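Progress report, Aim 2. The chain analyzed during this reporting quarter is listed below.
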Amino acid sequence: MWQIKSDQQAWREDINHYEYGKFFHDIYKDYCNLKLKYFDSLSLKHLTEKLIILESKENRKLNVNQTTAYSRSVYIREFARRVSNGVCQLCDMDAPFHDTHGQPFLEVHHIHYLSKGGSDSIDNVIALCPNCHRKIHHLEIEEDVKKISDRAMSNMNI
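Predicted C-alpha cells for the chain:
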C-alpha cells in the first residue's frame, strides 16, 4: 500500500510541472494506469473489507450532478434502426438480442456528438450493438469513426 501512495504522490508532483491542459491526455492516461494498477493489487477480500467500512459510515456525502439533455427525434432514431436491418453498422453482426417487443436491440449513436455541436439528423446517426457503441465512445478509433461516417452517408441514399 505504501508503494501505491508513493506512486500517487509522484504522479501529483509530475502534474505540477505541466502547464494546465497542455499534456492532459498523457496525464490522464498515466492516472488511469495508476488507478488500474492499484485496483489490480487489491485482493477480493481487501476490496470487500473496504466496502464494508464505507457502508458502515453514517455520514455519507450526497453528490449532486448537473446534466444537459439534448432533444432527439424519435423518427431519426427509428430511421437509424430500420436502415440497419438488425445488423450493427460497425461490426456487421446481428443485434445481440431482441427487446421486449421482439425488435433487434441496437443503440443509436451520434457520430458527431450532440454535446459537441453535432446534429440529430439522418447523416449523423448510426445503429450499433452495445459493445461497438461502448468501443466508439471509449476508444474513438479513427478507422471505426470513418466506417460509421461512410455508412451514415450511404444510409441517406436508401
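The CA atoms of residues 92 and 128 lie 9 Å apart. Residues 2-56 form one domain. These observations will guide the mutagenesis work planned for the next reporting period.
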